[in-house]
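Problem 12. The chain below contains 140 residues. Write out its predicted structure in token notation.
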Amino acid sequence: MKILCLDIGTKRIGVAISDPMGITAQALSTIRREDDEGVASSIKRLLQEEAVKEVIIGLPLNMDGSRGPQADKAVSFADFLSKKIGIPIKMWDERMSTLQVERIMIKAGTSRQKRKRKIDQLAAQVILQSYLNSRSAERD
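Solution.
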């Protein structure tokens, strides 16, 4: 069963997808966030093309675990999207995912321009891999 992950930003949405076995996550694409209806349509198309059965959305909690304005926006978008796609959506803690990816890219010598283009989808990949790892740990 493939799982899609979204890293919701104000300008871009990073997208990652799992392999059919739900073991590994791969960065897939970035969706420009111009209007939510258009974004929902793009996501719905991806879900159909990839035969996705579940969606994970990164929940940007504060460091103390509380919800702030960005987390509220992510939850609001998840509620909107769930009405459009008809597939289960789960929220997943994404604390530090973007920072973690940025540090790795800087250490690898990735240019600022390339980091900007790739960071959202790589953050989605990190979030999804964290989710997949937690499912694997539960089964063990």
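Discussion. The longest strand covers residues 25-32. Students who got a different answer should revisit the alignment rule from Section 12.3.
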